[in-house]
Amino acid sequence: MNIQEFQLKKILPIATMGFVVGAIELPVLISFGVLIYSGDLAQYSSIGIGMTLFSAIIFQLTMAFASSSSGSVGGPQDSPAAILAVAGATVSAAMIGASIQARFATVVAMIFITTLSTGLIFLLLGTFKLSRFVRFVPYPVVGGFIAGTGLLLIRGSFNVMLDASIGIANLGILLTPEALIRWLPGVIFGLALAL
Asked: Is residue 54 within 8 Å of residue 112, measured between CB atoms?
């Protein structure tokens, strides 16, 4: 929008949209930060939340000023957050004997390199107009990716609510009274939101 197009009557709708998007995105971004920096890295979750919020601000500003489609709103997605959470936990667990600070720094570097590489790939896809080849990705692959992401998000949410790693081997822990108190309200709330 240039100076000639700027009108005072547009401020209220734009500010309202910004407030609504911010109110929706803030809890989502906080949950992404907690999900990615959980387990051994839980003590760094506040820093992770800050980095997630900062990157979302950069993303929103880039989209607002560089998007070819005016009025577009976007934000960080749950699929990459779930994948980064698993990757971060794997990297942290593989660093046997390393300090927690070194694990955190390595996970942050992994996320930075992954984000930069993904951005570069999408920039090249856009520059060379290769997005038309996305239609050749088979539906079962896309469906499997979405289902796998959903599973990672569910597992990650239980890991965060219980502050323990949940897998097939220890599913019985979910039925203990102290665990029920921790995860049942979250599941009820999630179901209420879905309905």
From this structure: no
